[in-house]
Design a protein that fits this description.
This protein is of the alpha/beta class. The protein folds into two domains: 265 residues, Aldehyde Dehydrogenase, Chain A, domain 1, CATH 3.40.605.10; 184 residues, Aldehyde Dehydrogenase, Chain A, domain 2, CATH 3.40.309. 36% of the residues lie in helices and 22% in strands. It has 14 helices and 23 strands. A seven-stranded mixed beta sheet has the order 15-18-19-14-13-20-21, with helices on both faces. Helix 2 packs antiparallel against helix 4 and helix 2 packs across helix 6. It is globular and about 80 Å long. The structure holds NADPH dihydro-nicotinamide-adenine-dinucleotide phosphate. The site of NADPH dihydro-nicotinamide-adenine-dinucleotide phosphate has 31 residues, from helix 7, strand 11 and helix 8. It catalyses: betaine aldehyde + NADP(+) + H2O = glycine betaine + NADPH + 2 H(+); betaine aldehyde + NAD(+) + H2O = glycine betaine + NADH + 2 H(+). Belongs to the aldehyde dehydrogenase family. This is Betaine-aldehyde dehydrogenase.
Length: 487
């Protein structure tokens, strides 16, 4: 019998066991140890969470935006006060280096709560005078929203979904990915400590079936998912029966384009951040690195020199750059892509292997990998790997590189490194991507709309645009004269 702590579901402001008494294990990806036993929600538990959210939303939606904002702001303050503890929890549960989690995970979640705390009181409608009177519009909450998260940025995703939803007066039932179930529960506790009314934020745990119970639920008005393209399609289909609104943040295979006039040190920094940060487990990663043929050798020299210095190891060690993959299964999945890359004729310039870290033999570590000698049709150039695998490609001219960059069903992000501003803007216009970074990569300030196009998603998170996806617009016409009836 495992001695690991038990984590229950969070429903109506407190912990509750699952009705079936089923548990699954939360593992530390660095060593495979069980760090918790997590209650699994069945359909009835999801029903209970949704019913609690319906009750909670009535209270919450009736409060003023200022009052809601105050509670979100207090939650952000509590997140910052618990920064170290939360960062350690994310590292323990997801294997992300402790060098990353305080800023990339906890601060990012707190920034989001602060931003939407400030926006909560400024949801505005419009007024317009028309023939016979005027109309105004009311942005109203949708009701109960379901949030379903991926495992790569657990607390950030929970905040990116809950903060705008709650700011707009909705309640939420949130399901973290089953591989990283813990931090959403801490967020729920901090919401409660900040004074959030019971039932406004609920956490159910489980696998795809739990997510399916959420998407099928008649009292859920909206589903926001972060996950794979296939899951996005399943969620959209399931939501169609009750015409729920969906926001889908899905996968990608984004291009990062380095011109001959680029600052190569910055471009290499961008390529490394966009391929190796969080072990490469980032949806927006620029995994297809197109380098102008005239600077290819210089770029590769710098890239390999710096990549060779990355330290793979214990994610709790502050000097570690690259921790374990989120699970042994995902490690094997990434390694199978590396093998495929080799067997299709790609050449590994660095990495390309599983790394054994002393004391962490049960963790699945993958060396940061750069592939060369590729063409656009190879599997590793076309498919999302979600690991530290960079595909190096070269190009000659602008039309060619834009067309090759766009030749994918994905459309999440893109990066262009160039000193030629006109070219940068022209390419930003031509690239099929929801986000384009010019001379940067992977920065996602909360003020900036975030989301993909094509098969990378629907809708935007962050920024005031997020409110469009968490409100319904009611139009109210007001007559100023008599009714002009022809009968
Ligand atoms: P998955 O699609 O496997 O899972 C995402 C979530 O959906 C999990 O909570 C999962 O539960 C749940 N789920 C699975 N099937 C269903 C279903 N049929 N109905 C409802 N919910 C379901 O993604 P991963 O967790 O593996 O995350 C990696 C993927 O997420 C990558 O493709 C990545 O690109 C994408 N991603 C996109 C981002 C973006 O903003 N665009 C950001 C981060 C990641 P369970 O975990 O139990 O399977």
């Amino acid at each position: 019998m495992s001695q690991a702590p038990e984590y229950q579901l969070w429903i109506e402001g407190g912990y509750r066991p699952g009705r079936q008494g089923q548990y699954f294990d939360a593992l530390n990806p660095a060593n495979g140890e069980v760090i918790g036993r997590v209650a699994q929600a069945d359909e009835e538990d999801v029903d209970a969470a949704v019913a609690a959210a319906v009750r909670g939303q009535k209270v919450w939606g009736a409060m003023s935006g200022v009052a809601r904002g105050r509670i979100l702001m207090k939650t952000a303050t509590l997140l910052r006060e618990h920064r170290d503890e939360l960062a350690r929890l994310e590292t323990l549960d997801g294997g992300k280096p402790i060098a990353e989690t305080p800023e990339a995970d906890v601060d990012s979640a707190a920034d989001c709560l602060e931003y939407f705390a400030g926006q909560a009181s400024s949801l505005q409608g419009e007024y317009q005078s028309v023939d016979g009177g005027f109309f105004y519009t009311r942005p109203e909450p949708l009701g109960v929203c379901a949030g379903i998260g991926a495992w790569n940025y657990p607390i950030q995703i929970a905040a990116w979904k809950s903060a705008p939803a709650l700011a707009a007066g909705n309640s939420m039932v949130f399901k973290p990915a089953e591989l990283t179930p813990l931090s959403a529960l801490r967020l729920a506790e901090l919401f409660r400590d900040a004074g959030l009314p019971d039932g406004v934020f609920n956490v159910v745990q489980g696998f795809a079936e739990t997510g399916q119970a959420m998407t099928a639920h008649p009292d859920v008005a909206k589903v926001s998912l972060t996950g794979e393209v296939g899951t996005g399609k399943a969620v959209m289909k399931a939501s169609a029966d009750s015409l729920k609104a969906v926001t889908l943040e899905l996968g990608g295979k984004s291009p990062l384009i380095v011109w001959d006039d680029a600052d190569l040190d910055n471009a290499v920094s961008g390529a490394m951040m966009g391929n190796f940060y969080t072990q490469g487990q980032i949806c927006t990663n620029g995994t297809r690195v197109f380098v102008h043929e005239s600077v290819r050798d210089a770029f590769v020299e710098k890239l390999l020199e710096r990549t060779g210095k990355l330290r793979v190891g214990d994610p709790m060690d502050p000097s570690t750059d690259v921790g374990p993959m989120v699970s042994k299964g995902h490690h094997d999945h990434v390694m199978s892509f590396i093998e495929k890359g080799r067997s299709e004729g790609g050449k590994v310039l660095i990495g390309g292997e599983s790394v054994s870290v002393p004391g962490f033999e049960n963790g699945g570590f993958v060396a940061p990998t750069v592939f060369d000698s590729l063409n656009d049709d190879m599997t590793i150039v076309r498919e999302e790997i979600f690991g530290p695998v960079l595909s190096l490609l070269t190009f000659r001219d602008e039309d060619e590189v834009v067309s090759r960059a766009n030749s994918t069903p994905f459309g999440l992000a893109a990066g262009v490194f160039t000193r030629d501003l006109n070219r940068g803007h022209r390419m930003a216009a031509g690239l099929d991507a929801g986000i384009v970074w010019l001379n940067e990569y992977n920065l996602t300030p909360i003020e900036m709309p975030f989301g993909g196009i094509k098969q990378s998603g629907i809708g935007k998170e962050n920024s005031r645009r997020a409110f469009e996806h968490y409100t319904r617009l009611k139009t109210v016409y007001v007559a100023e004269g008599d009714v002009d009836a022809p009968y």
